[in-house]
Amino acid sequence: MENNFNEKYDQAQDKANKEILDKSKKEMEKQESSKSNKKDEEESEEDKQRRLQELVLDKHTKVCLCKAIPRLKIKEAIANGADTVEKVQKATGAGSGGCGGRRCTPKIQELLEKQLNQ
Ligand code: FES
């Protein structure tokens, strides 16, 4: 009689332990997935902010001071297929100002190298 009780008690204990273990596992999986989701959201939000800041800076940063050509226009020209300084200058009008391109040509070259190497 006592043995039977002990067996049943052990079985019930094993079952309860298993249930607790399963619950813990599920909770941990939930927490991990929500953590990774939050991380992804934060990263994507960070990326959005970074891209927005870069866009604003590109709009307001003048590459060619003489002609007031913004970096955004230079980047667009490169994205549209201008792969040399001359092509970028022809597409944007940069380099045709008072300094004859002495100030903006190195910046255009730098942007070309940076954008074409991505
Ligand atoms: S800065 Fe571009 S022509 Fe002078």
Describe the structure.
- The N and C termini lie far apart (78 Å).
- The protein has 2 domains: 1-60; 62-116, BFD-like [2Fe-2S]-binding domain (Arc Repressor Mutant, subunit A).
- The longest helix is centred in the N-terminal third of the chain and has 59 residues, at 2-60.
- It contains 4 helices and 2 strands, in the order H-E-E-H-H-H.
- Helix 2 (71-79) crosses helix 3 (85-92) and helix 2 (71-79) crosses helix 4.
- It is rod-shaped, with a radius of gyration of 32 Å.
- A two-stranded antiparallel ribbon has the order 1-2.
- A hairpin with a 4-residue loop joins strand 1 and strand 2.
- The protein has 118 residues and is mostly helical.
- The chain binds FE2/S2 (inorganic) cluster.
Characteristic key phrases:
BFD-like_2Fe2S-bd_dom, 2 strands, BFD-like_2Fe2S-bd_dom_sf, 2 domains, BFD-like [2Fe-2S] binding domain-containing protein, Arc Repressor Mutant, subunit A, binds FE2/S2 (inorganic) cluster, 75% helix, mainly alpha, 118 residues
Order of helices and strands: HEEHHH
Low-confidence stretches: none
Distinct compounds present:
FE2/S2 (inorganic) cluster
Q: What is the CA-atom radius of gyration, in angstroms?
A: 32 Å
End-to-end Cα distance: 78 Å
What is the 3D shape?
rod-shaped
SS content category? mainly alpha
As a percent range, the share of helical residues equals over 70%
Count of distinct strands? 2
Instruction: Report the total helices.
Output: 4
Largest sheet: 2 strands, antiparallel
Which strand order spans the largest sheet, edge to edge or round the barrel?
1-2
Q: Roughly what fraction of the amino acids lie in strands? A: under 5%
Q: Can you tell me the number of structural domains?
A: 2
Tell me, rounded to a whole number, the average pLDDT.
Answer: 84
